[in-house]
Amino acid sequence: MPELPETETIARDLDAAITGRSITAVKVTRPDVLRETGRIAFARRLKGAKLIRTWRRAKLIVTDLSTGDHLVVQPRFTGGLIVESADLDQSALAYSTMRLELDDARALHYCDVRRLGTVALMSESRFAEYSGALGKEPLDPAFTPAQLSGVLRVTSQPVKKVLMDQHRLAGIGNIYANEALWRAGVDPSRAASSIDEDEAARLHREIVAVLTESIEARGTSFRDYRDARGERGSFAAQLQAYGREGMACLRCGARLIGTHSIDGRATVFCARCQS
Asked: Does residue 59 carry a catalytic annotation?
């Protein structure tokens, strides 16, 4: 967490809220979140830059700057970007690690209680290299069932692990891998190469559906995730597999199984209707 729907939500919020603003001052209070450059160079390169666009790549939130640099944030488990405004609950900024003051008297904070996320400032060429190593975007209209089938058939790793491999597919994490596999009726432990074309088409459909629905609900909040306004997403109420181990399968009524044996992450599935 956050995964594709959460970072997409944050990126859209920020694009609407801060595009066109300029950075007037930079304060980094926890430099251990920085990557690619140190605190002094980070502040120097950001000060005076104009925010051109904010968008998502994989689980990254990317802000294009007028200088040609890219501010690249990977929130990981507990990180988030929040715009400080007069009506914001100040408790949302308790774990601010970085503050970018803007020319309209607001500020953009990167907050992270555990500081497992990262903030990087990358040149255009460095970002192109970094982004190029990431996998296909599952919500890109150019990403087809045939392409998903091609990703799956070349490896015998468990299909769930392949869906979460950011070098193969970008943005899918544990929550949405569980959900898409349950919806598609596919056992998460199956060898990816065993998924036939019809199953791949069904899985593709459910990946796109669950990610799109979660974006509409502004993501899934359990404990830490907040959007750029400091608010919670509501998709947790729609989860049908993740977090429901021991409960009845909503499709067949069998007890959902929870395990960590597939990829070391919490996997929830129905042994009766996922094959």
From this structure: yes
Q: Report all structural domains of the chain as residue ranges with CATH numbers, in order of start.
A: 4-132 (3.20.190.10), 145-269 (1.10.8.50)
Q: How big, in percent rounded to 5, are the helix, strand and coil portions of the chain?
A: 35, 25, 45
CA distance 272 to 74: 37
Whether the upstream peptide bond of residue 2 has omega within 30° of 0, thus cis, is yes
Tens of pLDDT along 75-106?
Answer: 998 899 999 876 777 777 889 999 999 999 99
List pLDDT tens digits, range 194-209: 999 999 999 999 999 9
Catalytic residue among 2, 5, 138, 158: 2
Annotated catalytic residue within 30, 53, 265, 272:
265
CA distances from 83 to 59, 90, 273 (A): 19, 11, 44
Separation CA 230–CA 244 (nearest Å): 26
CA 242 to each of CA 180, 245, 249, 267: distance values in angstroms, whole numbers, following the listed order: 10, 7, 11, 7
Instruction: Name the pTM for this structure.
Output: 0.93
Q: How far apart are CA 58 and CA 56, in angstroms?
A: 6
Q: Tell me if residue 2 is catalytic.
A: yes
Is the CB of residue 53 less than 8 Å from the CB of residue 64?
Answer: yes
CB 236 within 8 A of CB 221: yes
Q: Known catalytic residue: 265? A: yes
Residue 219 near residue 5 (C-beta atoms within 8 A): yes
**CA neighbor of 232 nearest in space, from 224, 241, 240:** 224
Catalytic residue among 45, 59, 161, 190: 59
DSSP per position, 115-140: --SEEEEE-HHHHHHHHHTS-B-TTS
